[in-house]
Amino acid sequence: MNKRFGRKAILAAAMSGVLAGMALLAGCGTGTQEGAVKVRIGEVTRSIFYAPQYVAINKGFFKEQGLDIELLTTAGGDKTMTTLLSGGIDVALVGSETSIYVHQQGSDDPVLNFHQLTQTDGTFLVSRKPLQGTFDWNTLKGSTFLGQRKGGMPQMAGEFTLKKHGIDPKKDLNLLQNVDFANIPTAFASGTGDYVQLFEPQATMIEQQGKGYVIASFGVESGKLPYTVFMTKKSYMTKQPDTVQKFSNAVQKAQLWVASSSPEQIAEAILPFFPDTDKAVVVGVVKRYKDQGSFAADGIVDTTEWNNLQDVMEAAGELKQRADHAKLVDNHFAEKAKSSVKP
Hints:
Elements (H helix, E strand, L loop, with lengths): L6 H17 L13 E7 L7 H8 L2 H4 L2 E7 L3 H9 L5 E4 L2 H9 L5 E8 L4 E5 L16 E3 L6 H12 L9 E3 L7 H6 L5 E5 L2 H7 L4 E5 H5 L5 E6 H6 L1 H20 L2 H8 L8 H13 L11 H13 L9 H4 L3 H9 L3
Parallel strand pairs: 1-2, 1-3, 6-7, 6-8
Antiparallel strand pairs: 3-10, 4-10, 5-8, 5-9
Family: Belongs to the bacterial solute-binding protein SsuA/TauA family.
Organism: Paenibacillus filicis
Main location: periplasm
């Protein structure tokens, strides 16, 4: 996430974000419902990591709440946030750090986190060579590490984990951060780096190609934090509280469904959103995320998770000052959904 939210930069990024999002309008929505309230969601990327969102759409949980969902993929945290700020979308699915970055720049209409979807980092450490015996993080020292974008949550969680194991990313590694997000898997498969930090399903695909091996999880290592959260502007929340509550209800029902369903059942429900991905890969990825507790059981962003997020940001040098949980998190929609929604 770019920390500099200058007025011109916001407008330019917002326009590009809206255009990109419209171009990538998902073909898997619920369709138009007579009398339904339209809600435009901007997701930071299309990812199996967000399985409960796709379940809520495909299983009709939003429709049950009288909501007509329009899903846009607004690639990148900066574009997603600026599209939200400019009114191009109503709700953003993005990392909580973006709301903190906006808060740091000052805003008359703050962005509020209201329903958490994922509660761990979603990346994995992939080695070019298979693991021999028990993994020791010290083996990374002196290696070439293909990392994620500076200032983004994946990179911050990665650096937090490395430092936890006594590794200084800037001194102990040849850290590469000059590869675009979409090209990182290809760069590693082509021979760049000894280790790489990858999301799924790219990590699994690299394994299937025999080009690398998953040896550790940054999600497990960095602990629970509000990694991906639905958020909206305070003005929207004030004007549309019933819509926000219905939205939270639908997501909570999907979270309960995911918690009680098998990876095979979840994969079947979300496959329409991943037409070019083999079902066996989707099943494996869902299982990996489910086994490590990445899917949040409810939407509540608690203070422990919020503080852990800021510890991660602080360790990466990306936090000017700590943000008050009460100012940027509104849990009452998620709390009501948790207490009232049944499987």
